[in-house]
């Protein structure tokens, strides 16, 4: 299965156009959160992606809530937040929001490490784990050199050992990747990142 994955679109018309064009060759498209900015413009942001015809699976970022994303997505987009899905024989599990809590204030959709741990405990196995936030210690470094990823997500990857773990959230680490055990962890960014997965 040929998978295109991205994160942190932040309503960029230019990046959305490039993603839609690239997605013509995809069997599955995955969006790892932050489609809009500060809880505003979500409908318009998803409209920018309406040209994608492959199945689109998403998680909410900290810039939109799960309920807001589900309402804007309608029936054409699968939204995962503490739940899983199977597409073409590939099993996915998703968890959105900022983990741990961000310093951004009331607009940001965040989870504590304990809340994230509880929601990730629902996943026993997956080929791909999709989270908005990165795991602690991998692709999670800010411009100031601080590692701000999630210990709960790192522990879940270590336990589940999916083939791939996708994240975003930390813009300074877009394009960076690493491994937790056998799992390849990638901080995607708003670009056409390509992956091959055998169901």
From TrEMBL:
Membership in a protein family: Belongs to the metallophosphoesterase superfamily. YfcE family.
Name of the molecule in the record: Metallophosphoesterase family protein
Lineage: Bacteria, Pseudomonadati, Pseudomonadota, Alphaproteobacteria, Rhodobacterales
Pfam family for this entry, one: Metallophos_2
InterPro entries per the UniProt record, alphabetical: Calcineurin-like_PHP_lpxH (IPR024654), Metallo-depent_PP-like (IPR029052), UPF0046_metallophosphoest (IPR051693)
Domain Calcineurin-like phosphoesterase: 1-192
Cross-referenced PANTHER family: CALCINEURIN-LIKE PHOSPHOESTERASE DOMAIN-CONTAINING PROTEIN, METALLOPHOSPHOESTERASE
């Amino acid at each position: 299965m040929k998978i295109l994955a991205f994160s942190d679109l932040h309503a960029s018309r230019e990046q959305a156009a490039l993603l839609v064009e690239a997605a013509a060759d995809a069997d599955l498209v995955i969006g790892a959160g932050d489609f809009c900015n500060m809880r505003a413009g979500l409908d318009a942001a998803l409209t920018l992606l309406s040209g994608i015809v492959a199945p689109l699976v998403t998680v909410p970022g900290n810039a939109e809530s799960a309920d807001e994303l589900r309402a804007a997505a309608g029936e054409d987009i699968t939204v995962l937040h503490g739940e899983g899905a199977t597409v073409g024989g590939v099993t996915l599990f998703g968890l959105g929001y900022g983990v741990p809590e961000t310093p951004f204030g009331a607009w940001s959709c965040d989870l504590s490490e304990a809340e994230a741990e509880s929601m990730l405990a629902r996943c026993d196995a997956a080929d791909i784990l999709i989270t908005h936030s990165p795991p602690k210690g991998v692709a999670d470094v800010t411009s100031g050199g601080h590692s701000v990823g999630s210990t709960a997500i790192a522990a879940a990857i270590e336990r589940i050992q999916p083939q791939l773990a996708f994240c975003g959230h930390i813009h300074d680490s877009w394009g960076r990747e690493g491994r937790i055990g056998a799992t390849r962890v990638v901080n995607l960014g708003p670009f056409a990142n390509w992956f091959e997965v055998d169901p």
